[in-house]
Amino acid sequence: MTTTRGRRIRTCVLALPVAAVLAAGSACAGISSAQNSSGAGADAHNAAAMAGPRSNQWDDLHKAATTESPATYQGPTQSVTTPKNVKVAVITCLSILSGCVSPATGAQQAAKHLGWQVRVFDGGGTPDKQNAQMLNALSWGAKIILNIAIDPNAVQDGLRAAKRAGVPVGAGSNGLDSPNPPVKPTGNNLGYAFDVGPDYAALGKKAAQWVQADSKGKANIVVYSDKEFPSVLALQKGLLDQLKKCKDCTVQPLRYFTGNQVAQVLPQSVVSYLRSHPDVDYVFIPYDPAAAAVVPAIAQAGLGNRVRLISVLGSQENLNFVRKGQVQVADAAYDNRYMGYAMLDQTSRLLTKKPLADPHGENLPFVVLDKDNVPKAGSDWHASFDYPSTFDGLWK
Question: Is residue 64 a contact partner of residue 379, using CB atoms and an 8 Å limit?
Answer without folding.
Answer: no
